[in-house]
Amino acid sequence: MCQCAPVFLRRSSAALLDLQWPMLIRFEAIHHELNKATAQNKDLQWEMELLQSELTELRTMQVKTEKESEKYKEERDAVYSEYKLIMSERDQVISELDKLQTEVELAESKLKSSTCEKKAASEGVEALRQDTIGDTGYFTKALTGMSYMTRLLL
C-alpha cells in the first residue's frame, strides 16, 4: 500500500470519530441513565420487599385481630345472655316478693280481724260470765226460794 493509506485511514478515522462522537456521548449519557435507573430499580425493589414484608405483617395482625374480635364478640354475647338471664331472674324475684307482700298484708288483715273477733269473743265471754254470775246468784236465790216454798207446802 502506499504511504497515503495511513494518512487516509487517520483522516477517515478522525472523520468517523467526528461523526460517531455525538453518538458516543449519547451512548455514555444513555449508559449513565441506565446505571442510574438500575440503581433506582434496586432501591425500588428493596422498598417493595420492605413494603411486602410490612403487608405480610399487617395481614398477620389483621387475622389475629379478627380472631380476637370474634372472641370478644362471643364473650360479649355470653355476658349479654347472662345479663338477660339475671334480669329475668330478678324480675321473677320481684314478682314473688310482690306476691309474698300481698300474702303478708292479707295475713296481717286476717290476724287483725281475728284479733278483733277474739277481743269481741273475749268481751262476749266476759259478759256471759258476768251474766252467768248474776244469773247464778238469781238462780240460787230462786232455788232457795223454791226450796223454802216446797218445804212449806209439804
UniProtKB/TrEMBL annotation:
Keywords attached to this Swiss-Prot or TrEMBL record, sorted alphabetically, are: Coiled coil
| InterPro entries xrefs | MAGUK_Signaling_Regulators
Q: Which residues form a coiled coil?
A: 34-117
Classify the source by domain of life.
Answer: Eukaryota
Protein name per Swiss-Prot or TrEMBL: Disks large homolog 5-like
Q: Print the organism lineage.
A: Eukaryota, Metazoa, Chordata, Craniata, Vertebrata
